[in-house]
Automatic annotation (TrEMBL), chain A:
Organism: Dyadobacter endophyticus
Keyword Transmembrane: yes
Chief place of localization: membrane
Keyword match RNA-binding: no
Subcellular location: Cell membrane
Boundaries of every ABC transmembrane type-2 domain copy: 128-366
Name of this chain's protein: Transport permease protein
PROSITE patterns hit by this protein: ABC_TM2
Family: Belongs to the ABC-2 integral membrane protein family.
Membrane-spanning parts: 21-40, 174-196, 216-244, 250-275, 282-303, 346-363
Automatic annotation (TrEMBL), chain B:
InterPro entries: AAA+_ATPase (IPR003593), ABC_transporter-like_ATP-bd (IPR003439), ABC_transporter-like_CS (IPR017871), ABC_transporter_ATP-binding (IPR050763), P-loop_NTPase (IPR027417)
Taxonomic path: Bacteria, Pseudomonadati, Bacteroidota, Cytophagia, Cytophagales
Protein name in UniProt: ABC transporter domain-containing protein
Keywords recorded for this protein, A-Z: ATP-binding, Nodulation, Nucleotide-binding, Transport
Family label: Belongs to the ABC transporter superfamily.
């Protein structure tokens, strides 16, 4: 145990003394989260909204002022027909169109309910979602305001149309994606490189000619990266909650447990790569090409898997990050628990055990 | 008692079965300072790696401290000390951290065996907070030796410890090895430098994976069969050419500022030789009996 701890401490020295490693470890996740995060929030700010007001009555004007006073929207009014609305979208600048029907106030007063149509450009799913959410909340707000002293409440129903991508498939939250990406990069690449570095520098030779069990070498090398990756998970979650206002809906404990599982999967992969390669460059290349690319392609983070050709969909099943991405997304955004995720968890667990077994089996206790 | 016993050890590499170690046998007594002397590529490192259980032999067997190098590799790994030819410590760790790490990995502490490394460690101690990568070649070797010694190994394997080290540090290093012998640690050391051979108790001269001779350095020198002459002239290159053309020549080669030569007739008249050389246009000719060195013996064995 003392040996193990000494080894782990040595690993921490390696990491903390190498500025480049540190930068990759901690600079990259933060930069990624912030870049992805602010690129998104900036888009929603000052979004061009086109208002087509057929009603031109009290209620529609009041609601419009409310929408216009929000810092998220720039309102432009135009009297367009339905077909002209589509044309306006194609010109590209506007993010959404709000349509008030002709008898808006009338309906509200007499039938106690009225409708508003919100049409968004759903090619950019996140933006479309956010705009609809904001608009809906403004409408609900207005509704509460006029309902204050009424026995029979007025109801305004926003009728939402997501143009171009009605099912909203694709990147829901980038945080789960970035999390998968960062953990993969840190755990796979860093472990692989750090073990291969011992081979390259010849220190592995000395370590082998010692009472230290080779298997322990592997575990001791992987352990610090597990710890550092968990620090990364924490940092990403803190950033997403406090900077990007993206709360974790489900259980944080479950999220950490699943993250730990995924980190171990990645560590096992890293160990496997390190066993099969002899130079740091090759280890890095394999980690990048063999791990990072498939994660970007097949996790569903950037490209919806459902839209892929069947063979690619099948391939996506063997990419561990796909399952992790689903798990994180479900916990963070949908707030699901383990009962809904046991299948994905089990798949990930199986992959981890398999990889660990294979790497431990193929670890060489001698030089070639 | 024999600490290391090697019997018909053979190692080949690759599909072409390139022979690196060819049927090598020798044994090293307990507490002995044994040198494997040979040029680069002679097979020294392969032998060391087999004895430290890092490589499997393709033939033959070997025992270290009575343990078989294939079957009992674990026992050997915990009892021997190994210092590879290439500097193999952690360059980003300080002297002290490296030493502490290796002490702990071997399940001991620096204090416990400090007496073993004291003589060496005091020389690098002033720099103990300096990272190993920033040390000079000589200091690196001293640190590596400390790390290999810290767990009180029964047998110490030093693979070319003085390659790339300045002459003063080399001399110091060998003095340290002589002192270690007093601690009853068996030491196997390999080196391509012939002048270091005389500092060993016994040496094995090795070339192309084969052992040419095993004996004490003194015996190897004493059994040199021919009369060795040291010859000097102002024109060195021409001197070698002329010597090659001498009818009675056995062997001749440059040796520092002299040429060393042996002749068929053990009683070659040095005076006649001087005349012969002058007749061939050489000036400043000087001929004398040379003191035989290990290098001369090695060259003799190669022919």
């Amino acid at each position: 145990m003392k040996q193990f701890l000494a080894f782990v401490r040595k690993e921490f020295y390696h990491v903390l003394r190498d500025r480049r490693t540190l930068l990759i470890l901690f600079g990259m996740p933060i930069a990624q989260i912030l870049i992805f995060g602010f690129a998104l929030t900036n888009e929603v700010k000052d979004s061009e909204i086109l208002v087509v007001d057929y009603a031109r009555d009290n209620a529609s004007q009041e609601l419009l002022t409310k929408i216009g006073s929000s810092r998220y929207f720039n309102i432009r009014q135009a009297a367009l027909s339905h077909s002209e609305i589509l044309g306006a979208f194609k010109k590209g600048k506007i993010k959404a169109v709000v349509v008030f029907p002709a008898d808006f106030n009338e309906d509200l007063l007499h039938q106690n309910k009225a409708q508003i149509q919100i049409i968004t450009d759903a090619t950019d799913v996140n933006t479309a979602n956010m705009i609809t959410n904001y608009l809906s909340s403004i409408i609900v707000d207005y509704q509460n305001q006029i309902n204050q002293n009424l026995e029979i409440p007025y109801r305004i129903t926003p009728e939402v149309r997501m143009l171009y991508n009605p099912q909203l498939k694709g990147a829901h939250g980038f945080v789960p994606g970035v999390m998968a990406l960062v953990l993969l990069l840190v755990s796979v690449m860093m472990t692989a490189i750090s073990i291969v570095r011992e081979k390259e520098s010849g220190t592995m030779e000395i370590l082998l000619v010692s009472p230290f069990k080779p298997v322990l070498v592997i575990f001791a090398k992987a352990f610090p990266y597990l710890a550092l990756s968990l620090v990364n998970v924490t940092a990403i979650l803190l950033l997403s909650v406090f900077v990007l206002d993206l709360p974790v809906k489900g259980s944080v404990v479950l999220l950490f447990a699943e993250s730990t599982l995924f980190i171990i999967t990645c560590l096992a992969l890293g160990i496997f790569i390190s066993i099969k390669t002899d130079s740091q460059q090759i280890a890095m290349l394999i980690s990048l090409m063999g791990m990072l690319l498939p994660t970007m392609m097949f996790s569903g983070f950037l490209f919806p898997i459902e839209n892929m050709p069947i063979p690619l969909q099948i391939i996506s099943n063997i990419v561990p990050s796909k399952w992790f991405y689903i798990i994180v997304k479900s916990i963070m955004i949908k707030g699901l628990g383990i009962t809904a995720l046991w299948k994905e968890t089990l798949i990930l667990l199986g992959m981890t055990l398999f990889l660990l077994l294979v790497s431990l089996k193929s670890f060489k206790i001698r030089l070639q | 008692m024999e600490a290391v016993v090697v019997k018909n050890l053979t190692k080949t590499y690759g599909k072409e079965k390139t022979v690196a170690v060819d049927n090598v046998s020798f044994s090293v007594n307990q507490g002995e300072l044994f040198g494997l002397i040979g040029p680069d590529g002679a097979g020294k490192t392969s032998i060391f790696r087999m004895l430290t259980t890092l490589l499997l032999p393709d033939g033959g067997s070997a025992h270290v401290d009575g343990h078989d190098i294939v079957q009992d590799f674990r026992a050997i790994r915990s009892s021997v000390g190994y210092m590879p030819g290439k500097f193999s410590l952690y360059q980003d760790l300080t002297i002290e951290e490296n030493l502490h790490f290796f002490a702990t990995v071997f399940g001991t502490t620096i204090d416990e065996n400090y007496h073993l490394i004291k003589d060496i460690y005091v020389q690098i101690e002033p720099f103990k907070n300096r990272r190993a990568g920033k040390l000079s070649g000589g200091m690196k070797q001293k640190l590596a030796l400390c790390c290999a010694l810290i767990h009180k190994p029964t047998t110490l394997f030093l693979d070319e410890p003085t390659t790339g080290v300045d002459p003063v540090s080399r001399k110091e290093f060998w003095e340290m090895l002589r002192r270690l012998r007093e601690q009853h640690i068996t030491i196997l050391v390999s080196t391509p430098y012939m002048d270091e051979a005389s500092l060993c108790d016994r040496i094995a001269l090795i070339q192309s994976g084969k052992i040419l001779s095993i004996d004490t350095p003194q015996n190897i020198v004493n059994t040199y069969p021919d009369r060795l002459l040291a010859i000097k002239a102002n024109e060195m290159y021409k001197l070698l050419k002329v010597l090659e053309g001498h009818p009675g020549i056995l062997n001749s080669y440059a040796f520092g500022e002299y040429a060393h030569a042996t002749f068929r007739d053990a009683h070659t008249d040095t005076h006649a030789l001087q005349v012969y050389l002058r007749e061939h246009g050489l000036t400043g000719v000087e001929v004398k009996d040379a003191e035989v060195t290990i290098e001369d013996s090695f060259i003799k064995l190669l022919h």
